[in-house]
Amino acid sequence: MNHDNEQDLSIKPAQRRTSSWDMFATWVGANANNGTWYIGGVLAACGFAAALGVLLFSSALSYLFLSLIGFIGFKTGVSTMGISRASFGLRGSYLPSIINVTQFIGWTAVNTYIAATSVSYLMHDIAGWPLYGQPGGNKGLICGILVMSVLHIISIASGSRSVQLIERIGIVLVFIFVLWESIVVFQTVSLHEIMTWHVPAKFKMNTGTAIDTVAAFNLAWVTAGADFTRFTRKKTSATVMPFTGALIGVIWFAFIGLVATISIAIASGTYDPNNSDPSTIASRLGLGILALIVIILTSMTANAVNLMAAGSALSNIFPRLKLKVSLWIVAILATLVTFVPMILGSFLSAFIVFLDYVGMVLGPIISVIIVDFYVRSHGHYHLKELSKQHGAYWYKNGINWLAVLTWISGVVIFFVLQRNEFLERTIGATFITMIISGVLYYYLMKLNQRSVKKNVN
Questions:
Q1: pLDDT tens profile 210-268
Q2: Domain map (residue ranges) of the chain
Q3: Which CATH class is domain 17-450?
Q4: Cα–Cα distance between 26 and 238 in angstroms, integer?
């Protein structure tokens, strides 16, 4: 794909209309959703105290990276994948762009599947359809996937402005629903019972594994950071608001998923991580049809961000493709991917495999982008060069092979470290892999720079 030399990737200050509140709402809405609730339920396998500790530590560390990427977007006015051209090269940026397209389509599918389960419960309550998992239950889930896909297409119909509107409406519904859910949970069981509940030994999750799980969930948003902060006018809107909004969203909703899953385990006498999805929990807590409708709407708020990020990444690969067209393409692809858990027969198994993939491929990319901007380039990029063939960021035939090598090394390092028993029990592999990748990229580029100077002399 040839890049137009005159193409301007940057959003100018006069075009920036996203307020601090909009940015806060976007990132609360991104995490105040079904997937975050489900993560909280999965973390119940650590026990209450350990799960909270992991959630706070891994989320706060992940969203520091979100702020760092957010600032780059604010300063340059360029999307995250557009920024990656400076480190990976114009053509090399296709690598992180493809990964971003796949992971955000995956997250859209995750939220769609959970919301489709809610539609299945709705059809059961309204029309008596069998639930998913029962004979004939596929009908309700398939109906749910199709309904959610239509809603997603409506939510992205007008591009970034409709995404902003969805977030503004969705966040109000989310806050009301979470308060309601919290009241119902603590009417069912006491906080003391939840805190003293013990995980059955066969379901126990190690701390390192839990940190990697939460990191994969949170880092997925980091590569979308600049896609939204490039529309802001204030530095704090691009750094403080994404960090604060995303952290509040993930802790609040994962906390509700955590305590709701434990409360059901206490009330029923059995713990099953497969029953951590919001629809099952809402049904068992007797929250009724209204709760299921809100779950469906919260899927729209999260997936508006997911689809926007996937569409932006696709537009980086195909610059002449309009953002609206990119959004339609990724929405259709996400619909198809949503059927994968049905084929595999287990949503939890598909979800864990997906998280492993996200954690493995994203960490090294984020490290390369951050080290390149803040350390190697001292916080400044030549914006016109980002779309210029044979310019400053062309490297070798449009690809910085040292960045690609760093990414490959990071993937291998993560794969090896994730199988280390000590790390599995303690800190996990994700953040160590990111540190190693960042240091490796810096020194590879430094050695290359020295080599070039020697050859010139």
A1: 999 999 999 989 998 998 899 898 999 999 999 999 999 899 889 988 988 898 888 88
A2: 17-450
A3: mainly alpha
A4: 12
